[in-house]
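Duplicate of #3305? Posting structure anyway:
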């Protein structure tokens, strides 16, 4: 025998018959039943052996099989032939017994079979279709039971005819009586073989067995009656009656046993469903646990790598000796700050339009802003904001400051009492970055003292500069010139001022830079 795979069945287009065993089953359930069992290809092979365990229910899809039995003389006797759509093996399949005949395929045969566990699984999953399948099996058994009963009746008629012949032969002489008795015994043996064949075809049931036993025993009783011609027939009839009652009791016992087995099968099906559900839940939990374990393992590996790198960095850091920087003395630091401050103030003098007005903060002590007439005074507390307009022309240590939103109120303040140097340093560094120069200045803080600076320009006239802040009073910084100012100026004064060739940057708009850019198509001509 050769087991066919699912692909082979689909390719060949084998389907289960819709009559007999598979009658009244839906299309969906038929597809599940189609592959719920096994498909077999057999060619002149023995499918079921007499006297061996038989645990399959067979369905003949195509071809034929022969039912054979070995008689008392050791000869093989063919009892029946089954064709497409026939089922066999149902009694031994249901009772879990052994086969009572041989089943052999005739030529190439395609069969479908199902064992007990597969049937229970199908019933548990498809209850209605499974019940219909069981009803179909019961229908096959009942049909064969009717056929067996018919055979019993035919046997009774033949036995009655044989007894009549035996009776008439007994009156003629002993020789003819013995010959008639032997003929009758042969017929009884043939009938027994026929019943054995019926059992192979699964007509064997409690009723069929009881009918067969009653018929055989009745035949033997009548034979004894006509042979002995004495009262022993009455005793045998009584014995037969007892045996029939015993068979009826056995029938009730087996029916009760069948009901208990059906109940147990239902419980087993429910337990199988519950077990399958628990198995699926356990499998799902195990899969989730494995996934979480893998993710945790990856995280642990990543943390271990980071820890290893950190250890390596720590070891390398311990091996590297600390570099000791040379200490800078206070005097050198003061000199650096003084040099940086002078450099920034010199740059601010040359780039007044880029620097001023500059918003600064008042430090250390408050100042008082006044108008030019001295009539209004506005105090500015420590931490207040003012605008630096320029360095005091008479003393480089002072600034001329004005109100934040107006140039009407002004005052002077020490550079060290403001954040002027810090704000100027930001602008100076920004200018150097934009021009591509690399300048490194020592950072200034609000607590750094203002270094002593040399005068930036000699004053045109003497001015009294007190040690403390004072208010500038007088005329406007740029008074209006008369129309004939050029006529009154000496020739030297009218000479053209030399143009500064220094580059203040591409974005500078001071007067000197505008003069330089006049011939270059500048957007800022000297107006």
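Output from current build:
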């Amino acid at each position: 025998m050769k087991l066919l795979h699912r692909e082979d069945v689909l390719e060949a287009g084998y389907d289960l018959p819709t009559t007999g065993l598979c009658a009244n089953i839906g299309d969906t359930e038929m597809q599940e039943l189609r592959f719920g069992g096994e498909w077999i290809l057999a060619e002149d092979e023995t499918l079921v052996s007499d006297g061996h365990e038989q645990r399959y229910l067979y369905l003949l899809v195509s071809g034929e099989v022969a039912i054979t039995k070995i008689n008392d003389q050791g000869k093989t006797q063919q009892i029946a032939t089954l064709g497409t759509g026939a089922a066999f093996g149902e009694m031994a399949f249901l009772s879990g017994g052994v086969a009572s005949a041989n089943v052999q395929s005739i030529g190439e045969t395609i069969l479908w079979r199902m064992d007990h566990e597969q049937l229970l699984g199908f019933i548990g999953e498809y209850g209605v279709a499974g019940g219909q399948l069981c009803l179909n099996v019961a229908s096959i058994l009942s049909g064969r039971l009717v056929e067996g009963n018919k055979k019993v009746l035919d046997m009774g008629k033949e036995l009655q005819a044989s007894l009549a012949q035996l009776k008439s032969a007994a009156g003629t002489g002993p020789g003819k009586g013995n010959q008639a008795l032997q003929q009758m015994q042969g017929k009884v043996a043939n009938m027994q073989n026929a019943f054995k064949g019926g059992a192979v075809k699964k007509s064997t049931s409690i009723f069929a067995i009881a009918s067969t036993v009653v018929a055989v025993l009745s035949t033997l009783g009548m034979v004894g009656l006509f042979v002995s011609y004495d009262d022993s027939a009455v005793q045998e009839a009584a014995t037969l009656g007892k045996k029939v009652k015993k068979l009826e009791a056995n029938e009730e016992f087996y029916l009760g046993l069948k009901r208990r087995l059906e109940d147990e099968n239902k419980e087993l099906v429910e337990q199988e469903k519950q077990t399958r559900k628990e198995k699926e839940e356990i499998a799902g939990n195990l899969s989730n646990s494995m996934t979480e374990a893998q993710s945790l393992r990856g995280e642990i590996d990543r943390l271990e790598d980071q820890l290893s790198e950190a250890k390596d960095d720590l070891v390398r850091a311990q091996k590297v000796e600390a570099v000791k920087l040379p200490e800078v003395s206070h005097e050198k630091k003061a000199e650096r700050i003084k040099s940086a401050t002078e450099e920034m103030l010199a740059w601010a003098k040359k780039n007044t339009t880029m620097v001023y007005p500059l918003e600064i903060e008042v430090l250390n002590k408050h100042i008082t802003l006044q108008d030019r007439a001295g009539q209004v005074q506005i105090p500015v507390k420590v931490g207040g904001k003012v605008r630096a307009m320029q360095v005091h022309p008479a003393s480089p240590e002072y600034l001329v400051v004005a109100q934040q939103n107006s140039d009407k109120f002004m005052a002077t303040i020490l550079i060290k009492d403001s954040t002027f140097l810090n704000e100027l340093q930001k602008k100076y560094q920004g200018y150097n970055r934009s021009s591509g120069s690399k300048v490194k200045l020592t950072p200034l803080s609000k607590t750094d003292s203002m270094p002593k600076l040399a005068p930036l320009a000699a004053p045109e006239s003497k001015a009294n500069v007190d040690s403390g802040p004072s208010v500038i009073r007088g005329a406007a910084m740029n008074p209006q010139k008369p129309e004939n100012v050029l006529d009154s100026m000496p020739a030297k004064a009218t000479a053209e001022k030399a143009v500064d060739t220094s580059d203040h940057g591409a974005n500078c708009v001071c007067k000197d830079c505008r003069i330089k850019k006049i011939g270059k198509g500048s957007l800022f001509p000297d107006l």
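Confirmed duplicate; merging threads. Residues 232-319 form the longest helix (88 residues). The longest strand covers residues 56-70.
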